[in-house]
Structure formats: C-alpha cells, structure tokens
Amino acid sequence: MKNPSFDWERLKDVFYRNRTIGELKWPAQYEDFRCALSLTVIAVEIQDFIQIYNYFGQLLGKINLRKIHEDVVKFEFNKDEKLILVTKNSIKIVNNISPLTIETVTLEESIIDTIWDYHNGIMLLNKSRDIYKLNENKWELLYENKDRKYNLLTKNHWSCNNDIIILLDVDHVYEVSTLNGTLLKLIADSSWHKVTISSRGFICLYNMKYNKLQIFKDPARILMEHDLDSTPDDICWCGNDTVACSFEDEIKLYGPDGLYVTFWYPFTVANLRAEIDGLKVITTEKIYFLSRVQPQTSSIFRIGSTEPGAMLVDSFSLLEDHAPKAIEILKNFVLEKGVLDCIVAAIDEFEPKLQKMLLNAASFGKASLQYKSFDANIFVDACNTIKLLNCFRSFGLFLTAEQHKSITLKGVIDRLLMYHKYYECVQICRLANKRSLLGYVFTEWAKDKIKENPDMEDDELLEKIKSRLNDIGVMDTIQMVTIAKIAYFEGRFQLSRSLALLEKNEEAKIEQLLDLDDNSLALKECIKLQNPSLTVSLLIALSKKLTNSQLTKLLTIDMFNDPLYLYYMRMDKAYLYDFYRQTDRFIDLAHVLLQQGKEKQSLHSFLPQIKDLYSKIQNSEMVSNSIEQLQRQEKLWIYQESLGKRFGITFTNMTLDQTLSKLIETGQDKQVKEIVKKFKVNEKKLYHLKCRTLVEAKKFDQLLQFSQSKKSPIGYMPFYTYLKSRGHIKEAAPYVSMISGLSYQKKKKLYMDCKSFRDAIQLAGKEKDIPGLKEIYNNIPSNEPELKAFANETMSRI
Amino acid sequence: MNRFWNTRKFSLSNADGLCATLNEISQNDEILVVQPSFVPVLNSLLTFQELTQSTPVRKIALLDDMLSDDLSGTLSNVPQMDLIFLIDVRTSLRLPSQLVDAAHKCDLSPLHIIYCQWKNSFQNTSKNSVHQQRDGYALNVKRSHFPNVIESQLTELKSEYILYPWDLLPFPQIDDNVLLTHSLYNMENVNMYYPELRSLQSATESILIDNIVNSLRSLIFETNSIITNVVSIGNLSKKCSHLLKERIDEQQTEEDLFIKGTLYGERTNCGLEMDLIILERNLDPITPLLTQLTYAGILDDLYEFNSGIKIMEKDMNFNYKEDEIWNELKFLNFGSVGPQLNKLAKELQIQYDMRHKAESVHEIKEFVDSLGSLQQRQVYLKNHTTLSSDVLKVVETEEYGSFNKILELELEILMGNTLNNDIEDIVLELQYEYEVDQKKVLRLICLLSICKNSLREKDYEDLRTLMIDSWGIERCFQLESLAMLGFFTNKTGKADLDIAKSKPTRLQKEYRYISQWLNTVPIEDEHATNKATNQKDEFAEATFAYSGVVPLTMRLVQMLYDRSTLFHNYSSQQPFILSREPKVSQTHDLIEQLYGDSDVIEESKWVPEAVTKKINASIKSNKRHSIDGSNGTTQAEEDIALVVFLGGVTMGEIAILKHLQRRLSKKGIVKRFIIIADGLVNGDRVMKSIS
C-alpha cells in the first residue's frame, strides 16, 4: 500500500495534505458564471437558472430566475445551507427548491436605498453603507453610517464572521460587533484592500499596493506578515489558522517566519471555500480538499516514525508472516496510545482501505491491552462514525469528522431533506440508530408528500402515509399534528382529521381536532383516553366555544353515559337541573332537587315536585315503591296539619314516630289510635314508642297502667331497660316480675341492678339460694339495716 | 427490586418536592393558603415547624370562606408577604370557589398556585428532551400545550397566574406497607366510589380509576419495578388494570422493553416476580358493614381517623414511625391490646429499673442516653392506655350495651341463623331497646339484605316503612340509593337491577353458600384446637379482626396463592395447592357462582412469557435465597405483591392481609403485601356517603 505521507507538505512542524474529493461534473464550460459554495452543495448560475449540484455533480434542483422577477445581485448559502438570493431590495431565503418556497425579507419602506452587499446575515446599504443584521428574518439596524465615518470602495473591503464585521475604510480599519453594533477603530491610518476573517476570529488583511498580507487577532500583536511575489487570485483561510492564497494553478499556505508551502494543481484553481478544518479547492476539472494532517496520522505514517501508532501498525503488518516479531514489537511502546492514535487516524482517512487497516491495527492492539483498562466504546463509536461518514460520502455529502461534528447528524439530515433525499435520510437514521430522527424524517416526508401532490385523493395520501408509517414503526417523535396542519392548510380537511387521529401525543391530538372544529371527534378521542382531567379541560374549552345548547347536544350524543361534565358542574345546581330536564332524565332531576332541598333545609317544599317527576317513570319497582312512600308522607302531612289545627301545636317536619310520641306525651289516646289505624303502625312499635315516651315524660303511673292494660307484645324487658337506662331504677323493679322466660339468676341480677334488694331477697328466698342471699347481703349498703335484717331472716328461714 | 420499595422515602420525597417549590417561588416570607381537605395530608407529610424551617413559609391559612376577609387584613399589616395557594383538584377537577373569590377580592397578581399531581404524569416529554440533549440536538418544535384543568379554569380570571406542579407519590401513613392515595373522597367529601348524586357514578368512578392508575404508575416508575403477574377481580378493577397497562406501555422505551426481554424473555427467566392484585369494594360489601375488632379498627369506628390518620376528638398523633407502641398494637384484636399494654409497661419498668443496677459510669451514661427515648415511650404508652380504657368504657358500659348485641347479631346474620319473621322485631329492639345509632341499624339491615341476597318482599316493605316512619322521608331516597347499589334490596328489585346495562360487580349468592365454600366463618372448635397447638401465633384463622369472620377479600387474595381452603370446602379438584404466582385457574366457576359472571376475574402476565417452562419451573420450585452481604445469613427473598383496593379498605382488612402474609410465608410463599388503597372505609363512612 502506498504510504499516504508521500504527498504531504511540511510547513514548519505541521504537515498539510491535499486529497481529491471528486471530479468536477457540473457545467463549467461557460466563460463567466457566478457560483456559490456551501459545505455540501454548489449553486451555479447558468443563464436564467440557478442550478444546485452536490460535490458529485448530481443536479439537485434548479431555480428559474425569471420567476423571481428581480435581478439577483448575489447569491450565497447561509449557515443552514439555505440558498439566499440577494436582490436590490430584498433577500430571498429559499426554504424549499421544489416546490419553490421563498421567504422574502424586504427592506423597510422607509429606507430609500438599495442593498449593496450581503454576507452571512449582514447587509450593507448602497449609498449610506449602513449596516443591517438579519435577525429572525427581520432587518435590524446594526450601525448607521451617519457622518460617513467610513467608506468602502469595493465589496472586498469588508467581511464578517458571526462575531465581528471588519470594514476597510480608505484610511482606517474599523471593527463592528454584530452583537450590539459598536464601532471600533481597529487600526488607524493604514489602508488595505481585502479582508478575510477566519471562523476563530483571525483577521487576514491584504494590501494590493505592497502585495502584503498581515494576520492578527488583536491589532496590537501582529502574528504574521508576508510579502507576496505576485497578486493572489483569491485569499482564503485553510482551517482556522492558516492563510491560503491561490495563484492560477497553485495554492500557497503561509506559515510564520515567512515560511510557506506550495501545492500545485494540474488545472486552474477556480474557487476556494474555507471549511473549519481545511480548504476546498475547486479547479476546472477536479475538487480537492486541502487540510492539515492530524498529529496522530502524521505520527503513524511519517517516514521513520517510532511513535506508538506507527509501531502498532508495523506490528500489525508483520502479524501474518512474522507473528513472533509482531508480538515482540508490541512490547516496546505505549500500546494504549498506539491504539488511540490509530483510531483517531482512521477517522481522519477517506480511503476505506486505510480506514480498515488502521482499525484492524487498533483492534489488534486493543485485544492485547489489559482487561477493562480500555474503554471499548471509543472504538465502537469510531467505527460508527466512520461508517456514517462513508455513508454520507456515498450520498454525495463530503464531510470530515470535524465538519460532521459541527453540523450534527440533524444538520446532515436537514440538508438531505432540503433536496428530498428521504431514502438516504432513512438509511442514515437506521445506520446511526437514531429512531427519534427517523420520526423527524418521516414528518418532513409526509409534509412534502402532501404539498407536492395536490391531485391525489385524500384516501390515497392517507394510505401512503399509513403504509410508510407501518414500515418505519416508530411513533415517538413523529408529529402527526404538524402533518395534519399542513394538510389543513392545503385544504384537505378530511385528511387532516385522519392524520390528527394518528397522533400519539394525546394533548396535541385533542388540540388539533379542536382546531379543526371537529368537536365531537375531539371529545370522542378524549374519552377514549380515559383521562378525566383532560376531558374536563377539553369540555371547558368547548363550553367557551359553543353555545349552551350546542354543548348539551354534544354531551348527550357523545357522552351519554359519561356524566363527567355534570360532575364538573356539580355545584351549579341550576345547570344540572336544566340539563336533566332537557334530556328527560326525571329521576336524576328529582335527585338534584332533593340535594337542593337538603341544602336549603326545606325538603318539604321540594317533595311534591319530586313526586311528580317520579310518577313520570313507569315500570320500575323501585320508583313505584318510592312513590308509595311519598304518598304516605303526603298523607301524613295532611294529617299533621289537621292535628296542628286541632291542638295548636305545630307538627311540621316531624316523622310519624315523632308525631306519635308527641301525641302520646300529650295524652291524646284517640289520635294515637287513629294514626295507628290510618298508617298501619306495627303494634310492637307502638309499644316501644309509648313505653319510651312515657318513661321520658316520667309518667310512671301511666306506664304501669299501660303495661297492665294488655299483654305486651314486646314483653316487659323493654320497660325495664328504658326505665333503668334513664336512671329510674326504683320504677324499673316492678317490671322484673312481669318479664317472662327469665332464669332465676337473671332475674336476681336484674333486681340487684336496680337495687331492689327486697325483691331480690324474696326471690332468692323462694329459690332457697343461700349463697345468692349472702351475695345480696354483701351488696346491701350499710345504711339499710332493715334490709340486712330481712336478708338474715330469709336466710335463717331456709 | 425489593430495596426500592422503601416506602418511607416516598413521604420524604413528597415533602422535599413541596419545600423545593416553595423555596423556588420567592425568597420573601410566604403565607401558604391550603385547601382544607388537603390539610390533614399536608400535616402528615411535614409539620408546621419543619415547613417554617426549611421554607420561607411563615403562616398557614385555610382556603375557606373566611379567607378573603382575613387576607385583606393580614396583607395590609405585612405587605412583604407572598401569598401561595396549595390546592389539590385531582379528584375534584374544579378549583375551590374560595380561590376564585380570594383572587377577585384581594387583587392578587400574579397568583401563585401549587397544585398536586401524581408524579411522572408528564414524564414522557421531559424524558425525550433529556434524551435529545444527550444526542446533541433538539428537534426544536414547540410541543403544543393543551391547558390543563386548572389553567382552563383560571383563564376566566383576569389576573396573571403561575402554576407550580407538585409531584406526589402515595405515601405510608398507617404502616410501611399501606399506601393511601386519598382519592376516595373529593374536596366536598363526596365518596367517589359511591357518589351522592347517583347519576354521576360513572364519572366519579372514572376519576377514581384515573387517580389510582396514575398513582400506581408513579410508584412503578419511581421504583423502576416491573410488574409480572396481574390479577384483577371486579369489573372496575379490570378497567383499572387495562388502563394501567396501557399507560405503562405508552411510556415504555426500547430500553425498557429490552430489559424486560432479557429478564423474562424466552431463554432466561430471572425468577423475579412482582404481583399486582386489584380488588374493588363491591366484591366484598360485607366487610365494611361489620364491626371492627382490631385496635385501629375500633378507633376508626368510634372516633374516625381523618385522612391524616388523626382523631379529631383526641389530640393524639398516630405516627407509626415514631410511636412503636401504636405500631405494635394497631393490628391486634382489641382483646389482646390490654395484655400487650401490660407487657409493654412491664418492659418499660424493667428498663427504668436498670438504673439501680447501673454501677459503672459507662452504664449510667448509657441509661441517661436512653432516658429520652424511654420517656417518649412512656408518654406513648400512657396515651394508648388512656385511649384503650376510653374505648373499653364505651364498649362495655351498659348505656352502649349495644356493642356486644350488634356483634352477636352480625355473627348470627353471617351464620345465617336469623329467621325471617324476626327481622322487624330485631330492628325494633335495636332501635328502641338498645337505642342504637341510626347508621348502625341501617348497616345491619344492609348486612342482612346482602347476606340473604335480597330480602323477602314483605320484610323489605315493612323495614322500609319502619325506617321512614322513624327517621323521616329523606330516608326514602337513601334507601333508594342503597337499593341501587345492591345494599338493600328485595327479590324483584334485585332482579330489576341485574338487567341494568352497565352492571357493576355484585354479590349474587346468599352468604351461607359463600361462607361454606370459602370457609369465611370457621367453626369455633377447630379454631380452638389450632390455638392450642399453636401457642405463639395468635390466631390460626384470620378471624380476629371481625367477630369470628374472615373477610371475603382476604379469601379471594388467599385463593390466588393457596387453594387449601377451597380444596377442603369447595371442590377437591384444584390445579394446585400452593403457588408462588397468583393464579386464577379453575376459579371461574366459583366466581360465576359468587358474582354471576365468570369474567369478573382476570389474570394476565405483563412480561414476556417464558417458553422454556421446565427451566422456569425448576427455578421457581427452588426457594430462592438471597445472601445478605452484611452478615452472611440467608433469608428467603420476598416478592412484592401490590394489593390495590378500589373504593377503600378497612383497617381490619389491612390487619388480615398482614396475617395472610405471615401465613403464606410459613407455607413457603414469601410475599410482601403492599396495600394501596384510595382511602379508608368503615360502616359509618359507607352509610354516610350513601345518603
């Protein structure tokens, strides 16, 4: 294999090399043509067309200048590689070649001047030479050259990068900051004729009169000065620290101390373009890339190098034939550095053969390293990068690793998308394993698809998009909503809706559907998500958008079984009332009334209404039960009223039981009987009630009378308990004997509990229970000697 | 996986989240205005002192009707204070009206509002952007932002507002393994499972599910857990598990899938397991209607815990993290609380007595050091002794003699002993003779109706009239609601209900069959012999939390792992007796008998099924042991089983599940049940919410 170092040139301690990128294939036969270069493409103006080629000479697109209706003063690419056409009054940013979409930024009407020159976002006016900056597609005055502070003779007399603008006045050199537009006199009383600025801010000035180059970053410290032999055709930065001048068919690179190297070309140099890590040289036949040789590469390939990298490559090449020697070599250098150097060098090579050789060497060296001492990811990443770069090159994008890093993968994709290279984009995404980018590519593809095919049917388009979607199989980053928006702007409402339905981001989907005025669909989709809070916020949005009746209609149709909105409106009883009334849901309506009644503490007044509503429902057992009860209640009210009139006591809001109790309390036996008969009150219940009421009213005599009037259906235990629990133990005792079915022990306990010792003693005496009597005796309080005597007596009797 | 379920951390991360937000809002002194329903929860997260120390909050106000008047006063006095609202509208979905009022009156601009949300709700987008930043590019597209519920309601307000989300996780309040989400009741204290306005039920249910699902998801993502086996019983539970699956899958990245694939894929199976069991209240409406007998349960029945696990009447802090005595007692049968307290007191005494023996300076120092904790312990012991004696007073005194009567009655109803014609008499007796609270009477009637699988026509009518006569016509509607929910039905009405379209899961069998099949009322003497053989373990059967009854929920959970009960009582044809994975196989028949629909129960696996069953089985059969690095002892590694209750859990059930966990681990199935519930229920709460 040929050692790549053969055509290197050395400038001081740095090597430079020149590599062919490819043949020049675009039409260059015209004598005088304007062209603009970008990192990846070239735009050439041929007659009335601007044609865009990549570096392989493939025609990517054309722009018919006649359609622009204005003279194009200049064109160039901006940093996103969008073509910018500069006319007298405006600049036009070409966002898309086909269909041609142009964004025009015109001068403000108040400016009575024309554009003189434009470069890299900075524009100078023709007469005043005022400086404007393009800021988010608006002109922004950066510096107003009011009193003609400077005068620029030719377009070579100024230049700019992202940070500064250098103006070469006739007498002085000025610097304007692009940030705030402050003007600074950089060098006084010196005149120059050409300026170029490197991306790192090195300034190179050229004086035509003395044929002299001067390079500095800070004017107080001139870094380099060169006297040239002849007038250069062009001056350009190679990388960001070396100046290159082109002279017909040679290019000279200038180093410090008057050193320079020359590269000869077989053809005339037509154009130069500075890249961040080198220089693109376009000759009439071929394109070259002139760049500095990475120190790692030079240490490997330099003749006679004994650096680790070179040793590793040596060892690897010996491996096949003289393995022992190869192993021997491995011991003699820092292996890890060798591996790293080989990896870096591999990335820097264009030639697959060399890449392979270097990677093989690295892999070999890596395997001999100590386990886990080396992060294998470095190697894997390098392989991936090389794969990607090779892939780019096969697609006509000539990028070095450095350039790729500066524009990122997304930048590459964007550049390809600009020329509708979807297939390539997908390939790259797959290769780089970036699924999120794949989604982005898909989104862009679908957008263009819709825009480019105005004649296709909605269904057809949808099918196409869907089938591609299946192929891709990622949904995460696809923004269906943006596609849907495009479809909407194209007037395809149906398509837009269908696309919006495919969106994965729920909120975005709902919002888009809402924007499409497809309220019902939005609501349906929202309900499907089962996210109540999202649904409610959609409903709130809808309630602002729609009239009340429209909303009700929507709710009844789409949310028939889902009362979420009603839940949201639960505080607004009037709304609920209206809603249920409109939808004929009488029971629910009744329940709303019921709640209202409870809140207002006047259920009474709502009940008739509720009853009416209930009676509208048929065939429901539950409802008919309730109606029955309500009717009974009404009957009670009527009766209560009549009672109230008769006795002058108000019975309102009393339950049946309370009414009964009241009547019992007041001793109205006749009415009690009447109620019992009228409302079929259970006899047992009556007994309980009466019993309790009488006890509470302390009408013990009546109670006794009542108990004896008839055999109690509830037994006499309740009598006892009522009395006792209310502390009337004296009165409770007599009932013990009435309680039937009690054992002796229990009876005794009951007597004891109500401190009726006499009865207890008698009882125990009857049972001849001496221990029981003793127990009773012990319980008798000491202030009752009589009882104690009685107990003793009973005991002695047994 | 286990170590990530350090539930105490959840409380800390919640508290930290709030402090961070409050610090971020401003450096001025702040007044925090808290929605009243959220105060107990806030209190149990961090104390006022902690809040003032770590944040600029100086004052806390309640977001109630008095607020706007108070505020204008305070603000004019101290102009430098910032006002911050803390609201929780996860279940209410509606801004508190007082907030709007306050904003109008006090002319606050901008309005600072902190709102609660379940953590990770919007994890998707943030994850993406992190991902992209790492790749060095951002797809610079404006994510459309649909206004959330709060924003869309605030737009009606003129004033400016800034919203701060507060990411919450469910956190433990009762026990390390019990996480409450507090989504059962909304701002107005309406039960979301049994809402007051019947017609809103499906809406509140969907909100409840949404909350539970989000909280589960937040837990799963927080702990990086992978759920393997899922069993859901009940229609709502099924809905819940489906939604959870959907939401988890939505956020799954390739990486997650890869991890799952490798852990559980075709070739390998690591044997890690995590179960999710979702139950709903309707499966077992009986348990909450019973009187609870555990210490915590009795306290809940008598005094009612609020959402901060505090009792209003008694100013006592039931913080299980600090109060060890509470931790020991809470799940014991109240009968054992006394002896336990006695034992604890003795222990304490012994520790105090140590000081007499202390001779060397070192020993004395040790004692003095421990003095603080001893004194603290003494305080707690005193508190619990007083409290339990209070409880005892209530339970035993003649005045409330009803307690025992009710217990007796409950057991009788459950055993199916009550005769039909007695019902009315019994109710009358309870109502008048024992003067039992209305709610309790109603509860018992409901219990009866459920256990008998609806009442006879005549009984139904009579009871209905009786209740309305004594308690007023409003009851008519409560009874109607109860009927709709299947709590109080007659034969024909029940049939009516079953025809309804979207029928919720409901018991369809008389309890005597259920108790027979599932042995929920274990026979007394068997119990006794077990007790004799097993001195140390309190109860062999889980009957201690309720009077001699094993809750149905417990049997259902048990059935998934251990079929011995079914084997003895239902059918001897069981596919297994013990299983490490929860399995529903061959239970459909039983479930159909119980709920009238065999689809009520559902089992699914959320990880790729292992193809090589054999290897799998061999792994499973080996009891896995993990070696604890620190001391080299081996201990059986426990699987986490999340048991989710929709519609609330009772204190008794928590205790019972703990018991089940112990029982299962004795049989070699080592599980750690983590109970996640939307709230606490008991009989009173259920009856109160259905009115």
UniProtKB/TrEMBL annotation, chain A:
Transmembrane segments: none annotated. Pfam families: Vps16_C, Vps16_N. Keywords: Protein transport, Transport. Residues 4-378 form the Vps16 N-terminal domain. One of its GO terms (cellular component) is endosome. The keyword Magnesium does not apply. Residues 478-797 form the Vps16 C-terminal domain. The keyword Transport applies. One of its GO terms (biological process) is endosomal transport. It comes from the Eukaryota. GO terms for molecular function: actin binding. Essential for vacuolar protein sorting. Required for vacuole biogenesis, stability and to maintain vacuole morphology. Belongs to the VPS16 family. This is Probable vacuolar protein sorting-associated protein 16 homolog. It comes from Saccharomyces mikatae IFO 1815. The lineage of its organism: Eukaryota, Fungi, Dikarya, Ascomycota, Saccharomycotina.
UniProtKB/TrEMBL annotation, chain B:
GO terms for biological process: vesicle-mediated transport. InterPro entries: Sec-1-like_dom3a, Sec1-like, Sec1-like_dom2, Sec1-like_sf, VPS33_dom3b. Pfam families: Sec1. It comes from the Eukaryota. Belongs to the STXBP/unc-18/SEC1 family. This is Vps33p.
